[in-house]
């Protein structure tokens, strides 16, 4: 090693030191950064029509020819009349 005064006994002159570029050491640090992510939801209500049969029954009765002509067609809807008959007959049974 040289003391900066040359090499003793060899008569070497002193030299300037060589300075190298610095060695770069990178230490990575990771910090969480919140990024909002929006997920839009779109609800679509659909109505689907499903055909369901609804049956109607008609009743036609022709009778004798009267003074005003033949008796015309008669339509019967048995829902309310039948319900009244059933309700009335039940009440009579309970008494």
What does this structure look like?
- The chain has 95 residues and is an all-alpha fold.
- It contains 1 helix and no strands.
- The protein has one helix at 78-94.
- The longest helix has 17 residues, at 78-94.
- The protein is rod-shaped and about 160 Å long.
- The model has no long low-confidence stretch (mean pLDDT 78).
Number of strands: 0
Instruction: Briefly note the structural class of the backbone.
Output: mainly alpha
The radius of gyration is: 56 Å
Shape: rod-shaped
Mean pLDDT metric: 78
Strand percentage: under 5%
Tell me the number of helical segments per DSSP (H or I, 4 or more residues long).
Answer: 1
Helix-strand string: H
Level of helix content? Answer: 10-25%
The unreliable regions are none
- Give the termini separation: 133 Å
Largest beta-sheet characterization = none
Give short descriptive properties of this protein:
95 residues, mainly alpha
In short:
The longest helix is centred in the C-terminal third of the chain and has 17 residues, at 78-94.
Note the topology.
Elements: H1 78-94
């Amino acid at each position: 090693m040289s003391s900066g005064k040359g090499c003793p006994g060899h008569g070497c002159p002193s030299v300037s030191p060589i300075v190298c570029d610095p060695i770069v050491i990178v230490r990575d640090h990771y910090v969480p950064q919140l990024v909002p992510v929006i997920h839009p939801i779109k609800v679509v209500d659909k109505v689907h029509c499903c055909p369901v049969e609804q049956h109607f029954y008609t009743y036609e009765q022709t009778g004798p020819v009267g003074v005003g002509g033949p008796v015309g067609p008669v339509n019967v809807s048995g829902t309310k009349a039948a319900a009244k008959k059933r309700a009335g007959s039940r009440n009579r049974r309970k008494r």
